């Protein structure tokens, strides 16, 4: 049995290995392409920020900030945290770079790792990756909410994720309007059923009562189902906004399900919230979460600014694609060059260069191998073709190409070989 290596990746983190990384690249490339068609530009953000930024934006009482952040004191005694999410950073950057003076709204997207010290399980890691987008400034027209969701669904479609379900809700207005009244009412009702709730929910009655609605604890479900619903407490403006968002989704042919318990685990949301679940993920099936956060830029010291966005859990997206058979990535090389002899080696180097320039993946063994061994190696690497080059082939000017799947061998003059392979590539793509 192999001994355990001395060093291993820290719990909840992992190495992403080839060939799976090719799938990660495909998923990210598709995001770049689709988001550009909706007018979004990429922003690259720091991995760590002042702890205070997240405490203020995400909320000091949220699980993310109170239990899951990786925080440390920097050498100058300031408190720094690895980012648990990126919406706060985008808003910080929006203000820091005076983006209010650009044409509004500003549409930004990001791709990168986030850090939360959660209990690791399938689809849940301590270092995970998000693909997110934010729209900042301009109006809070419901068409923006719907277009952001349209972009997401277009992206999922392009990336090959099928069977995703879109859930939406409105959690009303943050301040003096509907939400405050609803939360008070919720607290009163929760106090009445306190003894029937588990310790987490009991604690949340005071710290974050909306989050009780998120509970998955089986024994609490009958009680939660009977709690007052925010839809019945929305003010006229929020009600109209929510109705218009639904109309705008319908205009775009987007199917949705309403879920009154969709409150999200970050404090900055108001009005529209949404989540998307994907098949094949087990209990961690939310592949994307997002919503509107009109007060957030102001909370960070900026002027009143509208905002809405989402983040896709890239790890979960990849898992779901793999579970649904859409995560297959091309393995192996196109051509393995089996060469023997000094003259053949010079020709092999030339062939490798020409083939690689034409976009083929080529393996050129660094030392001479007997042809039998070389062909075995080509098979192991999953090569499609072996190019056989001995001194005879070079002297004759005819190169042998073996199709490894069929065993068929053909001879080509050097200039025709590349042309043949290019044609084959066209046929198979
Ligand atoms: P969130 O719901 O906390 O929202 O995270 C978004 C997505 O990230 C989740 O739906 C999930 O797919 C993925 N995710 C979260 N935690 C983990 C984890 N520990 N392991 C693997 N995947 C995970 C936000 O982060 C907001 N900033 C989204 C947003 C952007 N709202 C407005 N703009």
How would you sum up this structure, described in words?
- The chain has helices at 20-37, 51-58, 63-67, 87-96, 142-159, 178-193, 199-207, 221-225, 236-251, 296-299, 314-323, 342-357, 371-380, 391-396, 414-428; strands at residues 41-42, 48-50, 71-73, 79-82, 106-115, 127-136, 165-170, 257-258, 272-277, 286-292, 307-313, 335-340, 362-363, 385-390, 398-403, 409-413.
- By secondary structure, the protein is an alpha+beta fold.
- An eight-stranded mixed β-sheet has the order 1-5-6-11-10-9-7-8, with helices on both faces.
- Strand 12 (335-340), helix 12 (342-357) and strand 13 (362-363) form a beta-alpha-beta unit.
- Helix 1 (20-37) runs antiparallel to helix 5 (142-159) and helix 2 crosses helix 4 (87-96).
- The longest helix has 18 residues, at 20-37.
- The two termini are 43 Å apart.
- The model has no long low-confidence stretch (mean pLDDT 94).
- Histidyl-adenosine monophosphate is lined by residues 85, 87, 116, 118, 123-125, 128, 130, 132, 134, 265-266, 286-291, 309-311, 313, 315-316.
